[in-house]
Design a protein that fits this description.
Layout: E1 2-7, E2 10-12, E3 18-26, E4 31-39, E5 46-51, E6 57-59, E7 67-72, E8 77-82, E9 91-99, E10 102-105, E11 109-113
Parallel strand pairs: 2-11
Antiparallel strand pairs: 1-3, 3-8, 4-5, 4-9, 5-6, 7-8, 9-10, 9-11
């Protein structure tokens, strides 16, 4: 069994920063791509950022230049550093990981940007 557990969400003022972390545990030989998605109330889940096991990254246009994704292959973790947060970044954030031929998801962590 594989589990992904996110942490680091919370309430932050506009312009502030948060760092999300996601740790994968269980029967893991290697992890291919890892990523972060988000889902705001009444909206579809959308891609935020992804990172390959080689370190190649991609970002949604809306977060490029403000968010940074990183991973530690030895620890099976993926982080999302979020700077210059805006109200429209408010959402539940989910990490995922391709392990073998299966895509696993975490349970999500809430990020609320509000003054």
């Amino acid at each position: 069994q594989v589990q992904l557990v996110e942490s680091g969400g919370g309430l932050v003022q506009p312009g502030g920063s948060l760092r999300l972390s996601c740790a994968a545990s269980g029967s893991i030989f290697s992890i291919a791509a890892m990523g972060w998605y988000r889902q705001a109330p009444g909206k579809q889940r959308e891609l935020v950022a992804t990172i390959t096991n080689g370190g190649s990254t991609s970002y949604a246009v809306s977060v490029k230049g403000r968010f940074t994704i990183s991973r530690d292959n030895a620890k099976n973790t993926v982080d999302l550093q979020m700077n210059s947060l805006k109200a429209e970044d408010t959402a539940a954030y989910y990490c995922n990981a391709y392990i073998g031929r299966t895509l696993y998801w975490g349970q999500g962590t809430q990020v609320t940007v509000s003054s």
